[in-house]
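Q: I'm building a small set of examples for a reading group on sequence design. Run inverse folding on the following structure and report the sequence directly after it, with nothing in between.
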């Protein structure tokens, strides 16, 4: 996959996750009980991981040539971590 196509794909996925995090945040805001702190902690983790992924994507955009291949692996690790966190957050809400 070429660099531009990869970056476009990752940017689109990040926007999708932004929407997921916003939906999670809206649900958490409606919860008013003793367990809501656990949801808020999860939300903060999601936001942190999203910011890490956004920074990796920005760094990837700024580099070209061979450097981007090396950065791509770090990007994919951040992506996987964020995706797992989002799934975990939604799982907590369903419990």
């Amino acid at each position: 996959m070429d660099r531009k196509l990869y970056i476009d794909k990752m940017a689109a996925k990040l926007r999708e996750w932004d929407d997921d995090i916003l939906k999670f945040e809206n649900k958490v805001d409606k919860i008013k009980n003793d367990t809501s702190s656990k949801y808020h902690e999860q939300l903060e983790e999601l936001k942190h991981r999203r910011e890490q992924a956004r920074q990796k994507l920005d760094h990837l955009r700024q580099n070209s040539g061979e450097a981007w291949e090396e950065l791509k692996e770090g990007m994919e690790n951040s992506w996987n971590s964020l995706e797992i966190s989002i799934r975990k957050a939604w799982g907590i809400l369903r419990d």
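The chain has a mean pLDDT of 80.
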